[in-house]
Automatic annotation (TrEMBL):
PANTHER family: CYTOCHROME C OXIDASE SUBUNIT 2, CYTOCHROME C OXIDASE, SUBUNIT II. The gene is COX2. GO terms for molecular function: copper ion binding; cytochrome-c oxidase activity; oxidoreductase activity. It is a multi-pass membrane protein. GO terms for biological process: ATP synthesis coupled electron transport. SUPFAM superfamilies: Cupredoxins, Cytochrome c oxidase subunit II-like, transmembrane region. This is Cytochrome c oxidase subunit 2. It comes from Rhinogobius sp. HN-2022.
Length: 230
């Protein structure tokens, strides 16, 4: 998860998030090179005392500064489109979870199991245990198996919400009356935190999201206990 004074992204916990980090570094390097070139040209033009009578009318320069930006845009657009299609790809999910946004908590329904459904409320500050994070911990976590495609159906009951978990590279709007879907694969066990990313009222800051990724055997034990409690 994020920590104070962090400048970069959170550590990737899914293949899609790893691709997003690589694309970010790729685009940032291009921006850095362009900025360096422009700064050098500005400094050179301001500080030099030399003049060139052909600099104001040069077909070669105009061709270069027309074609070169087009090539740079292609180098940015192609990887971006590839990742967009990867993020929309949902093939044979092993588990489907329906996330429903409310004011101001989340509900989860495991549609592959008839009786696994629960509400997820933020744990108040006075009830936190040592080691738990203020404004991020919930009383019931969304538990998923690792290294398995997980489909999340996202909707809302009242106003607009947004289900977002940065470490997994997931962000999907929750719209009343509409069912959106996204998918992720948790590449390692861990607890991943997110928050509602759409302003949804007075307690918008107090409806966190916690996804706990566990090995398949542990997930089977958890689902068995949930079915017994139901």
């Amino acid at each position: 998860m994020a920590h104070p004074s962090q400048l970069g992204f959170q550590d990737a916990a899914s293949p899609v998030m790893e691709e997003l980090l690589h694309f970010h570094d790729h685009a940032l390097m291009i921006v850095f090179l362009i900025s360096t070139l422009v700064l050098y040209i500005i400094v050179a033009m301001v500080s030099t005392k030399l003049t060139n009578m052909y600099i104001l009318d040069s077909q070669e320069i105009e061709i270069i500064w027309t074609i070169l930006p087009a090539i740079i845009l292609i180098l940015i657009a192609l990887p971006s489109l590839r990742i967009l299609y990867l993020m929309d790809e949902i093939n044979n999910p092993h588990l489907t979870v329906k996330a429903i946004g409310h004011q101001w908590y989340w509900s989860y329904e495991y549609t592959d199991y008839q009786e696994i459904a629960f509400d997820s409320y933020m744990v108040p500050t006075q009830d936190l245990s040592p080691g738990q994070f203020r404004l991020l911990e919930v009383d019931h976590r969304m538990v998923v198996p690792t290294e398995a495609p997980i489909r999340v159906l996202v909707t809302a009951e009242d106003v607009l919400h947004s289900w977002a978990v940065p470490a997994l590279g997931v962000k999907m709007d929750a719209v009343p009356g509409r069912l959106n879907q996204t998918a992720f694969i948790a590449s390692r066990p861990g607890v991943f935190y997110g928050q509602c990313s759409e302003i949804c009222g007075a307690n918008h800051s107090f409806m966190p999201i916690v996804v706990e990724a566990v090995p398949l055997k542990h997930f089977q034990n958890w689902s068995t206990l949930m079915l017994e409690d139901a």
